[in-house]
Design goal:
mainly alpha
Length: 352
């Protein structure tokens, strides 16, 4: 392998210059000239220093290889579009010249559009919101806005303007007379006309005004408004009445422990029943069903599976009555806790 000295490299550069003039580093490597590009860089430090050492003046930076792209052609291309586009949109439409070529010629994307007289500063978040509101043909309440799925969401609009009303006032759109703020007495009259209690979710789905949010703002809580209107609110959660809970217990037919009740998907849940009656035992006492004894069925006759009692079912029942947890039984018998709960609850255990 030939060892290239400094003088030999300079002689090679001078020979190339006589034949082809100045050659860029890219064209030198593409033509596979000798010495190799990296050999020249190793000896002289950079490409320009090598050519200057050979006695040739090389511009510090060559004009970009833009295939005839000039500032004037770029300005014409931008003006043909007619309105500002971001680099991403320009590239998505495969416009020419390319975005990198434009940045090379003008230094930045914004400078190119300023030169073409089409630069417009981007809108602020508040200005974009006002533009969106003015595109609509009427005023919308917050509930109507979110229910329709408009963007941005109502919370974003409140964050930018301080309140929902202030945003519409800034857009020059006032609420319809039907959307004026209701007083406490007017809301109470609407609730009294409705007559019976309903949840906030049900109210918003079936009523336009007032919204549940407005009611909470004026009365502090949803139930407080109904109580102020003289309409009783159900106790417990999800409006489960005492009568409904009794019917569920009586439909079961015989006592079932709370943990097994929940494991088999009974409704209402044991927690709801305890809230209504005070305790699990008190609920069954109210339903006139006595606690189960070993050997009694835990399900109503209509739900009893027609199968004989297995030794595993009886062992599970007896161990459960002795105080073992479902986790202990799961480890002992290799069954899941839900399977154990079903087998204990739904096993047909003949009475001794």
């Amino acid at each position: 392998m030939k060892r290239w000295t400094r003088d030999a490299i300079l002689a090679a550069i001078q020979k190339v210059h006589q034949e082809d003039g100045y050659v860029s580093s890219y064209r030198w490597m593409k033509a596979r000239r000798q010495p190799h590009f990296y050999t020249i860089i190793h000896v002289f430090g950079n490409w320009h220093a090598a050519w200057q050492s050979a006695g040739f003046d090389v511009p510090r930076r060559l004009p970009p290889k833009a295939n005839g792209v000039t500032r004037e052609s770029v300005i014409r291309a931008i003006q043909d579009v007619g309105q500002f586009e971001s680099e991403r949109v320009w590239s998505m439409h495969h416009r020419t010249p390319s975005a990198p070529a434009i940045r090379k010629l003008f230094g930045s994307w914004q400078s190119a559009w300023e030169a073409a007289g089409l630069w417009t500063p981007p809108l602020s978040p508040a200005e974009r919101i006002l533009l969106r509101l003015r595109q609509l043909d009427r005023y919308y309440t917050e509930v109507e806005w979110d229910r329709a799925g408009f963007k941005p969401v109502s919370q974003t609009i409140r964050n930018n303007f301080g309140s929902w009303t202030a945003a519409w006032e800034a857009a020059g759109i006032g609420p319809d007379p039907d959307h004026r703020r209701l007083s406490r007495n007017e809301i109470l009259a609407i609730l009294k006309e409705h007559g019976t209690y309903c949840t906030a979710k049900t109210w918003d789905e079936s009523h336009g005004r007032p919204t549940s949010r407005t009611v909470r703002k004026l009365f502090g809580a949803w139930k407080s408004a109904w109580q102020a209107a003289g309409i009783p609110c159900p106790d417990g959660v999800r409006a489960v009445s005492r009568q409904l809970a009794l019917e569920a217990l009586k439909a079961e037919g015989q006592f079932a422990p709370a943990q097994l009740w929940d494991a088999t998907g009974h409704r209402p849940s044991s927690r709801t029943i305890r809230k209504i009656f005070g305790s699990w035992a008190a609920a069954w006492d109210a339903a006139e069903i006595s606690p189960a004894r070993p050997g009694t069925s835990l399900v109503s006759p209509n739900e009893r599976p027609i199968r004989s009692l297995s030794a595993t079912d009886l062992a599970l029942w007896k161990d459960r009555q002795q105080g073992k947890t479902l986790t202990d039984l799961s480890r002992q018998f290799g069954l899941s806790t839900s399977t154990i709960a079903r087998r204990i609850l739904r096993a047909r255990i003949p009475q001794k």
